[in-house]
Specification:
Blueprint: E1 4-5, H1 30-43, E2 48-52, E3 64-68, E4 75-76, E5 81-86, H2 94-111, H3 115-123, E6 125-129, H4 134-142, H5 167-172, H6 193-204, E7 207-214, E8 217-222, H7 241-253, H8 272-275, E9 279-281, H9 282-285, H10 292-299, E10 303-310, H11 320-336, E11 342-348, E12 359-364, E13 367-369, E14 372-373, E15 376-383, E16 389-392, E17 397-404, E18 411-417, E19 430-432, H12 443-446, E20 458-459, E21 476-477
Helix pairs in contact: 1-2, 2-11, 7-11
Length: 481
């Protein structure tokens, strides 16, 4: 396991918590941050777990994560997991403080009997990493916190948001694979320990959605973050562009200023981002090679966006209360996006056992007129987790879901996805029939044209691709039905 449960000795001199447990609106240093997380966990031990990632920062500071779940430390079958990561750039500190207040809010609301928060925690596994770059935070703070660059990088002077494997290059070079691309990459450099720790976190848990909290502007940024090389900037759409726009608009649309055209821009009174609803495609703004956002999407099943939370990277402490009020609803609503789309379990029809590593392909067949439909393959597949469970985010529409796994006959079903609400995603299970291994077939053979108006499941008996098989880990909870 890459994580461990913690009990942190609380240094009383550094604790900035009121008698009733409220987190103050101050800039918490690294010791205070750990103390606040421990305090929140102590108040809500039944629905939280405090752990550290596999690596420390360059200077040896642990990377603390607070998890919320009705079964802390366990992945529950079909329960989506999401994460928030703050302070990747050490001098961009607002996200760090917001995540401390989010942790406290979730705990307090749960204890107070807030039905919506109870429902959210009981149906979502939430991971909160307030600071990915505590060394950079220390450098920025020691230098007054006002410089635009000092403290941005880690203690080795590396920009962590340029340190992730550049999987976009593989896509832009014409690689046929469209997911889990780490298997196609050979690194020619040594990852920073903070980057390595987060990559292990990403690969260890079946995250569905996540957000990376930054500062320096006010906008929700979505993939691709890197341009295709034909120009320095330009819209670089991922196959899930519509889904990512929905995710970004969820955050921006619940923020009182992010999408408000009356909000001045950071460099001029005109706010181009607000005219776009408070969102932007990353590469259309500027290209980011080796970024964490695109790595999540291309290296795992995780759909991540980047949240730029304000023009001031290190805002004064007296502004933090208002910043929390402005971001609170957006932070909660974004967690709910983990339930957008569909979910289910891929099972062996003969034994009932879950099938890990099955490939889930989505085709958009939404009706456009009375007698016409879309027929668009979404060329980014997701895979089932260790228990055979899967999640496929999508905006509302009608879709054909095609599942394939080594040693089984592929199967396809139709599903309608409605507008997201504060409920769990509809369940679409697949029971695949075991068959002898068959020769690989082309994508055109495997994804034939179908009539989505037929009110029945559509079955195909072709197979394509190889799947790595792996066993259940001890932290994977499979309920008995």
């Amino acid at each position: 396991m890459l994580t461990s449960k913690l009990v942190i000795p609380i240094a009383v001199a550094f604790v900035v918590v009121c008698a009733r447990g409220d987190v103050d609106f101050v800039h918490h240093n690294n010791t205070m941050l750990a103390s606040v997380l421990q305090k929140v966990h102590n108040r809500c031990p039944d629905v939280s777990r405090l752990y550290t990632l596999s690596e420390t920062s360059v200077s040896g500071v642990p990377l603390y994560v607070l998890e919320f779940s009705d079964m802390p430390g366990k992945h529950q079958l079909m329960e989506p997991e999401m994460k928030y990561i703050g302070n990747m750039h050490g001098n961009e500190v607002l996200g760090r403080e917001l995540l401390l207040h989010l942790a406290e809010y979730l705990c307090n609301a749960y204890l107070a009997g807030d039905k919506e928060i109870i429902h959210l925690i009981h149906n979502t596994r939430i991971h909160i990493l307030p600071s990915m770059n505590p060394d950079g935070w220390q450098t920025a703070s020691d230098n007054g916190g006002q410089d635009y660059l000092i403290g941005r990088n880690n203690a080795n002077d590396v920009d962590l948001n340029r340190d992730f494997p550049d999987l976009d290059r593989l896509v832009f070079s014409g690689l046929q694979d469209n997911n889990h691309l780490m298997k196609n990459l050979k690194l020619d450099y040594t990852l920073q320990p903070e980057t390595e720790a987060v990559i292990k976190m990403i690969m260890d848990s079946p995250f569905v959605v996540s957000a990376n909290l930054h500062g320096g502007d006010l906008v929700a940024n979505y993939p691709y973050d890197e341009s295709d090389g034909r120009s320095e900037t330009g819209y670089s759409a991922s196959p899930d562009d519509a889904t990512f726009r929905t995710l970004a608009l969820t955050y921006a649309g619940n923020h009182p200023r992010m999408g408000n055209v009356n909000t001045p821009g950071c460099e001029s009174n005109e706010n181009q981002f607000a005219k776009q609803g408070g969102i932007t495609n990353g590469a259309a703004w500027y290209s980011v090679p080796g970024g964490m956002q695109d790595f999540n999407y291309l290296g795992s099943n995780d759909f991540e966006i980047t949240l730029e939370l304000g023009c001031d990277k290190y805002p004064p402490a007296d502004s933090l209360k208002q910043e929390w009020e402005d971001n609170k609803k957006s932070l909660i609503e974004f967690i709910w996006t983990a339930h957008m789309g569909i979910k289910g379990v891929i099972r062996n029809a003969a034994t009932g056992a879950g099938i890990p590593g099955a490939i889930i392909h989505m085709r958009n067949v939404t009706r456009t007129a009375k007698y016409t439909r879309r027929d668009d393959d979404i060329d980014h597949d997701v895979t089932s987790a260790r228990g055979g469970d899967y999640w496929r985010l999508s905006p509302p529409g009608e879709y054909q879901i095609i599942v394939q796994a080594k040693g089984f006959a592929p199967q396809a079903k139709l599903v309608s996805v409605s507008e997201p609400s504060h409920t769990t995603a509809p369940v679409l299970n697949f029971d695949l029939e075991p068959v002898p291994e068959m020769d690989s077939v082309s994508q055109d053979q495997f994804f034939p044209q179908v009539n989505p108006d037929q009110n029945q499941d559509i079955l195909y008996n072709n197979y394509m691709g190889d799947i790595d098989e792996y066993g259940l880990s001890p932290d994977y909870y499979v309920p008995q039905f």
